[in-house]
Specification:
- By secondary structure, this protein is α+β, with helices and mostly antiparallel strands.
- Helices cover 17% and strands 44% of the residues.
- The protein has a single domain (29-144), classed as Lipocalin (Beta Barrel).
- The chain has an 8-stranded antiparallel beta barrel with strand order 1-2-3-4-5-6-7-8.
- A hairpin with a 2-residue loop joins strand 2 and strand 3 (50-58).
- The chain is globular and about 45 Å long.
- This is DUF2147 domain-containing protein.
- InterPro entries: DUF2147.
- Residues 31-144 form the DUF2147 domain.
- Keywords: Signal.
């Protein structure tokens, strides 16, 4: 009986440790990232159990008077008046085994939205945007800001 109890306690400790390790690894993405072209900073954050990213700075994000430019390339005319500053461009990512997946990335330069997966390669974040299947996409690399 004591051996079974010890084994059960050991199994619970291992399972709990693995859950905490998964959570810690998932939150590694949180922070501010600089785009590959170095023309935008994106703050990735967690809301509930999903990950999102908002544009916090961009080279061409401001009007001469200092106000934020708007999302003029958006295909939805009702959304063209929203400000680029703090615009959420990464939405609804979930973490699974080293990859953030199932989300979307919006490109305010083109007004297009793509399916997207993200994963680390060393300290850099690889962002893979695609339409349809991941093989038919493009990868960009972001670095910590």
């Amino acid at each position: 009986m004591m051996k079974k109890l010890t084994l059960l306690v050991f199994a619970l400790v291992v399972a709990t440790g693995s859950l905490f390790a998964q959570k810690g690894a998932a939150d590694k993405i949180i922070g501010t990232w600089l785009s590959e072209e170095k023309d935008g900073k994106i703050e990735i954050y967690k809301s509930g159990d999903k990950y999102f990213g908002k544009l916090v700075w961009g080279k061409n994000m401001y009007e001469p008077d200092g106000s934020s430019r708007t999302d003029i390339k958006n295909p939805d005319a009702k959304l063209r008046s929203r400000k680029l500053q703090d615009l959420v461009i990464l939405t609804n990512f979930t973490y699974d085994d080293g990859e953030w997946e199932g989300g979307k990335i919006y490109d305010p330069k083109s007004g297009k939205t793509y399916s997207c997966n993200m994963k680390f390669k060393g300290d850099a974040l690889q962002i893979r945007g695609y339409i349809g299947i991941s093989m038919m996409g493009r990868t960009t690399v972001w670095t910590r800001s």
